[in-house]
Task: inverse folding
């Protein structure tokens, strides 16, 4: 058992891919193939249950990285196979394994042709995502990063909508541009390790020890930081690099959108957390305000553009731009409140936006349109759908009691401690978020039923309830008991901050350094 | 024990809500009756009332200093310096609110059983109503600002759901959304205010904040508090109050909120939720008292809102719209009280207003119910004989809001006017606005009362004249009748409370002031009770003013004829009737420009600019790919040449580095 436990991460990462390969042997009958679907679902469920081991056994105050496995891979270049998780990647792994069965179960009706390839790619994608989250070697990270790209490209390109080829190309182009610069930067870092410490290495923990020279807006450190940031910002996606997202989302099949929004976008935020911040602290402090500004702009911009979308899915896509803007804002606030809020917001966004895409997919399957104007009054015929949609909408507008509030509250509070003006601007998103979500909800769900086709819509099926119920439960659990999550996260966030704020000389370390206290000093002196 | 107060309605919500959703909602299923679902809902809010009474008695037995009961339910958010517990606290201020919420709440639940008897989905209605009570109780019991905020947004949600309760009517759904969005604008101020408190004082717990500021005060002025921050905090939080408690400029949602069922208007949009802002200011009086700037802003906004809303109320035809603007106006009074440092007077008016305004709304609901959904007072008249119980109870509410002694409204309004006059932060101007508003209130309420209950019925005559554009059903039925006991009993109880509620705080013998002393200390800003003569004179002025207003309206509308309704109004009157066109102005100045900006951002910035650049890059790479393809000739010689060039280049570089 100890052997099993010590290589748990490797098993977890490669299980979906192995399962997918085995699934290729299952014969496909024409006109739907139940065994294959259930095989894929079972694979993702087994993976999820394995990940629960991680959650249960992870001890926040133990080693920094747990289930650490390292093996030499390409020794001449110092490249290793090295995996491990801390309190940050733990949650992103959990998010991935939690959402995968939901995405697969959500695809049962939606995907009817080339099912074998479809489920194969989904599971392969899971391996890519899990691998990227647990990699502790930059090159390995890069490999998984690219591995993710390929299944997603095909998922959009084959099972997507009318403009799928354009969307897939745009997605590919954007991401490739980012990743190529990242690859160059990785090799430069390995080289720096040789220069400074005598041997090549791409192990993240080794690289943390480097002091990357070249401080200044365009010094070497800043350029490296920007190279990584470009790759990550495209993934997030950060304004103005976001335009691939609406197209990819609208064209992707439902499960593709869910995974794209819920997990792939997190890769950007995670990259900042694991790589860009701790490696280049001086550059982070230099670019703190510009990035926070972009985050704040993204919040407002995404919300405004979402308001005028005629297509529900596109509206949700732009809402992602807005919500991920919060993540950037919180990360760059560089204090515990803001960073914790950002990590939480990444999970929240996965849950809520994943649920939104599933809901949109469900009415699309019924009506084959996503135009807001094609609906109206749906509540009357689909009460269960309406209640679920309402709850998810409230989570998306960050109503207290739902997960969304905890994340936004911490991010805004954290960024307030760093930059009051930007935090106030970003807080406008609280109003705009309500505008676009509730206006859409009103037009889709309320009013009289104006289209004859809508009178016969079926309410949620049992399968659909099973797909949505875990997400609804998660929305409330995360909104009411966030400490369950913070407990496991805290020490890792602390370590992250210690590394990343090295570049900041006068850091407003905590809110307790108050003007009240200052007033007190005045009094006693 | 304490947590039971919000817990009971939550259970009621879960029972009715899940029963409705899984047992009744699907198409074709039998819907449960309003009696069964209503009694479930009423039972749970009544249980909560019993617990509230129990806790009140418990507090009553304690001495002032220790009059606090608190309960930490579980730790909520612990991150860095943020330590937020899910904690409730009841003290002499919040206990009053719990009594009003659960007490009036129970009556309104009971009333709704009758009112919603013809509704299609009473199960859903009572679920929402219980959910509202849950959120409202969280709001007043929360031990810290974030828990208060949880309730604050929660009541906003329920308000949204209940305004749009009849969602198949697009206008009602829109009104719900408008309420939510406008409230969110206020909440933005609330949020930022919380951040500023946290970054200034390091805590968001009420007691902790209070003792921090009290400590600061005790050390004889040696400790300095950042007064600018305090002013900013007070103003930011007041923005939240403007939204929730419908003050200028954010009051616009409340009149539209009348789209909801009438019991909702009574409970949420008159008695409880809209007074949250006053609760918060009274709760944070230790902040507000430090900033005269903030106080004068609060007082001015309150007085101006009181006056402004009254001008609109004068010209409304819809019985609920009159009451809605009257609520905005009365809320203005409460803020006026808080703004002159008379928090107790503000709270007093919250309580009396909860009684008489709930009574008036429920009375209006009884009229609407009896008249088969007619809301236009110009088409009523003479209901005195047809609905005697409603008439009598409504009359008491009317006298109370007009400020006629000895009804409750007289005491609270008089206290506010006196404080507005005599407090150091008050002024003759503020008093004047309040007094003029009082006369206007008497006028428009009498207009409403007269047109509805006195004179001769106009609904039959109306039928003969047959204005074609009006409602198509419901007039002149022989079936205009008194409402059932479920509805009249709450009216009678509220009428009694409206009549005697003033006893809580009689000038110079105020139980309320004494009771609230631990939370709202007698402050130097509050008026001193020295100038007795002046006090009596002002009291006489306001009573005489109210009587004049009543007499004038009685005179003007007693013999109102249906034909007069068609008379061309003057420009001023029309502007009042059209609510000074504020909605249209907001639409033109805020809503439309934002919409247009969004369109431009999307269609020009996203599609024309960013995407073109990206596609441009794509073209370049395509082009360079095409160009590079030329090199892949398949000719070994060319490849060898390239290899050689590469080799030389590498060697050159290595030599360069080596040297």
Result:
């Amino acid at each position: 058992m100890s052997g099993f436990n010590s290589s748990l991460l490797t098993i977890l990462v490669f299980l979906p891919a192995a399962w997918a390969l085995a699934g290729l042997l299952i014969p496909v009958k024409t006109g739907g193939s139940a065994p294959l679907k259930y095989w894929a679902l079972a694979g993702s469920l087994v993976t999820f249950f394995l990940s629960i081991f991680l959650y249960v056994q992870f001890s926040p105050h133990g080693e920094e990285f747990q289930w650490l496995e390292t093996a030499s891979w390409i020794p001449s270049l110092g490249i290793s196979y090295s995996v491990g998780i801390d309190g940050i990647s733990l949650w992103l792994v959990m998010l991935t394994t939690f959402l995968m069965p939901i995405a697969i179960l959500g695809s049962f009706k939606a995907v009817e042709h080339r099912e074998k390839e479809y489920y194969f790619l989904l599971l392969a994608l899971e391996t890519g995502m899990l691998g990227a989250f647990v990699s502790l070697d930059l090159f390995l990270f890069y490999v998984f990063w690219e591995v993710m790209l390929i299944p997603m490209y095909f998922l959009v390109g084959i099972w997507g909508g009318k403009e799928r080829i354009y969307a897939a190309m745009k997605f590919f182009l954007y991401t490739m541009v980012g990743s190529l610069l990242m690859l160059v930067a990785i090799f430069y870092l390995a080289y720096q390790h040789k220069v400074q410490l005598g041997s090549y290495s791409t192990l993240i923990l080794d690289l943390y020890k480097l002091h990357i020279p070249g401080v200044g807006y365009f010094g070497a450190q800043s350029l490296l930081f920007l190279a990584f940031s470009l790759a990550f910002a495209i993934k997030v996606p950060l304004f103005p690099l976001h335009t691939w997202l609406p197209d990819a989302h609208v064209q992707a099949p439902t499960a593709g959108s869910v995974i794209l929004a819920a997990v792939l976008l997190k890769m950007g935020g995670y990259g900042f957390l694991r790589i860009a911040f701790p490696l280049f602290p001086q550059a982070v402090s230099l670019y703190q305000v510009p990035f926070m500004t972009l985050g704040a702009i993204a919040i407002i911009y995404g919300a405004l553009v979402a308001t005028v979308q005629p297509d529900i899915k596109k509206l949700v896509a732009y809402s992602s731009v807005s919500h991920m803007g919060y993540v950037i804002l919180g990360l760059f606030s560089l204090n515990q409140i803001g960073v914790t809020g950002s990590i939480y917001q990444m999970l929240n966004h996965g849950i809520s936006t994943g649920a939104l895409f599933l809901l949109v997919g469900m009415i699309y399957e019924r009506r084959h349109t996503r135009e807001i104007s094609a609906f109206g009054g749906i509540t009357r015929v689909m009460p269960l759908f309406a209640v679920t949609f309402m709850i998810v909408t409230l989570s998306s507008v960050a109503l207290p009691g739902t997960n969304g509030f905890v994340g936004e509250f911490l991010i805004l509070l954290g960024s307030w401690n760093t930059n009051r003006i930007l935090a106030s601007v970003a807080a406008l998103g609280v109003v705009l978020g309500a505008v676009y979500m509730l206006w859409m909800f009103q037009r889709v769900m309320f009013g009289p039923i104006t289209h004859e086709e809508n009178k016969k819509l079926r309410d949620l099926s049992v399968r659909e309830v099973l797909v949505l119920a875990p997400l609804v439960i998660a929305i409330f659990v995360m909104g009411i008991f966030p400490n369950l999550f913070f407990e496991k996260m805290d020490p890792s966030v602390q370590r992250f901050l210690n590394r990343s704020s090295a570049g900041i000389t006068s850091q407003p370390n905590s809110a307790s350094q108050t003007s009240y206290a200052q007033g007190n000093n005045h009094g006693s002196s | 024990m304490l947590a039971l107060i919000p817990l009971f309605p939550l259970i009621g919500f879960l029972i009715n809500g899940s029963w409705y959703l899984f047992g009744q909602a699907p198409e074709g299923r039998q819907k449960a009756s309003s009696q069964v679902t209503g009694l479930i809902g009423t039972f749970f809010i009544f249980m909560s009332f019993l617990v509230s009474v129990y806790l009140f008695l418990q507090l009553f037995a304690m001495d002032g200093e220790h009059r606090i009961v608190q309960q930490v339910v579980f730790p909520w958010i612990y991150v860095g310096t943020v330590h937020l517990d899910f904690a409730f606290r009841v003290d002499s201020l919040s206990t009053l609110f719990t009594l009003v919420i659960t007490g009036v709440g129970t009556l309104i639940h009971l009333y709704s059983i009758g009112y919603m008897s013809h509704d299609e989905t009473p199960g859903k209605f009572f679920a929402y109503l219980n959910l509202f009570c849950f959120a409202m109780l969280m709001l007043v019991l929360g031990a810290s600002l974030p828990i208060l905020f949880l309730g604050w947004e929660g009541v906003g949600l329920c308000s949204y759901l209940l305004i749009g309760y009849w969602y198949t009517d697009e206008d009602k759904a829109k009104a719900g959304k408008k309420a939510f969005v406008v409230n969110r604008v206020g909440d933005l101020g609330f949020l930022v205010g919380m951040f500023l408190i946290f970054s200034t004082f390091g805590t968001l717990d009420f007691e902790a904040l209070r003792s921090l500021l009290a400590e600061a005060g005790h050390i004889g002025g040696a400790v300095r508090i950042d007064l600018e921050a305090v002013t900013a905090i007070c103003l930011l939080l007041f923005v939240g109050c403007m939204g929730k408690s419908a003050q200028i400029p954010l009051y616009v949602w409340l009149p539209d909120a009348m789209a909801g069922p009438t019991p909702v208007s009574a409970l949420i949009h008159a008695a409880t939720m809209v007074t949250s802002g006053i609760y918060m200011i009274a709760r944070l009086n230790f902040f507000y008292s430090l900033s005269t700037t903030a106080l004068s802003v609060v007082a001015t906004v309150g007085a101006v809102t009181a006056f402004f809303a009254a001008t609109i109320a004068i010209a409304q035809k819809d019985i609920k719209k009159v009451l809605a603007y009257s609520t905005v106006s009365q809320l203005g009074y409460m803020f006026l009280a808080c703004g002159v440092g008379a928090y107790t007077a503000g709270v007093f008016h919250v309580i009396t207003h909860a009684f008489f305004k709930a009574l008036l709304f429920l009375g209006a609901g009884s009229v609407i119910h009896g008249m088969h959904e007619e809301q236009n007072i110009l088409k009523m008249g003479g209901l005195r004989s047809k609905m005697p119980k409603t008439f009598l109870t409504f009359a008491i509410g009317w006298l109370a809001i007009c400020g006629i002694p000895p009804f409750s409204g007289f005491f609270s309004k008089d206290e506010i006017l006196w404080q507005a006059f005599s407090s150091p932060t008050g002024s003759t101007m503020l008093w004047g606005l309040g007094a003029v508003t009082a006369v206007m209130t008497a006028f428009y309420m009498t207009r409403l009362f007269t047109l509805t209950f006195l004179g001769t019925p106009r609904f039959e005559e109306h039928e003969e004249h047959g204005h074609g554009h009006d409602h198509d059903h419901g007039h002149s039925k022989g079936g205009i009748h008194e409402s059932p006991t479920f509805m009249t009993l709450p009216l009678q109880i509220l009428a009694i409370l409206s009549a005697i509620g003033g006893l809580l705080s009689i000038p110079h013998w105020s139980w309320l002031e004494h009771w609230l002393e631990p939370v709202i200390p007698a402050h130097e800003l509050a008026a001193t009770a020295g100038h007795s003569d002046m006090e009596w004179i002002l009291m006489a002025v306001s009573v005489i003013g109210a009587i004049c207003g009543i007499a004038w309206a009685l005179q003007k509308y007693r013999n109102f004829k249906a034909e007069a309704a068609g008379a061309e109004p003057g420009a001023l009157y029309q502007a009042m009737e059209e609510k000074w066109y504020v909605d249209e102005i907001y639409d033109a100045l805020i809503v439309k420009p934002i919409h247009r900006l969004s369109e431009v951002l999307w269609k020009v910035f996203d599609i024309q600019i960013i995407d073109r650049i990206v596609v441009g890059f794509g073209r370049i790479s395509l082009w360079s790919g095409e160009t590079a393809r030329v090199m892949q000739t398949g000719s070994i010689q060319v490849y060898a040449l390239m290899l050689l060039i590469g080799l030389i280049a590498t060697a050159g570089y290595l030599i360069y580095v080596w040297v």
About this structure: Chain B has 26 helices and four strands. Chain B has a mean pLDDT of 86. Chain B touches chain A through 69 residues (CB under 8 Å).
